[in-house]
Amino acid sequence: MFNTLYNEACAYAEIHKDKAKAIQALQDAVKTGYADLDKLSKDSSIELVRDTAEFKKLFAQVLEQETAPKPKPPEFNKN
User: Fold this and answer.
1) In Å, what is the CA distance from 74 to each residue of 16, 71, 77?
2) CA-CA distance, 17 to 62, in Å (whole number)?
3) What per-residue confidence (pLDDT) applies to 71?
4) Could you give phi then psi for residue 71, rounded to 5 degrees?
5) What gap in Å lies between CA 6 and CA 45, rounded to an integer?
6) Radius of gyration of the chain from its Cα atoms, rounded to whole angstroms
7) Which end of the chain is less packed: N or C, by CB atoms within 10 Å?
8) CB-based burial of residue 49 (10 Å sphere; 0-12 exposed, 13-18 middle, 19+ buried)?
9) Tens digit of pLDDT for each residue in 24-68?
10) Spatial separation of the C-alpha atoms in residues 18 and 49, rounded to whole Å
11) Coil, strand, or helix at residue 78?
12) 1: which DSSP letter?
């Protein structure tokens, strides 16, 4: 699902030049689990929105989620 939303964002940015719809699609993609920092930082398809405050906020959110310590799984009693 999130890849479809990311591709939608790319189309809005690259083909339609619609920043608002591209940002909304990116936000929806992230809400559903999209977290490819490399693509977000390098994909030329979303270059149109990369300098916006909304994109920078979204990128920071994803970066924080991806670099936050992950909780340790519970240990089960081996007795």
Assistant:
1) 48, 9, 10
2) 24
3) 81
4) -65, 145
5) 10
6) 16
7) C
8) buried
9) 999 999 999 999 999 999 999 999 999 999 999 999 999 998 888
10) 9
11) coil
12) -
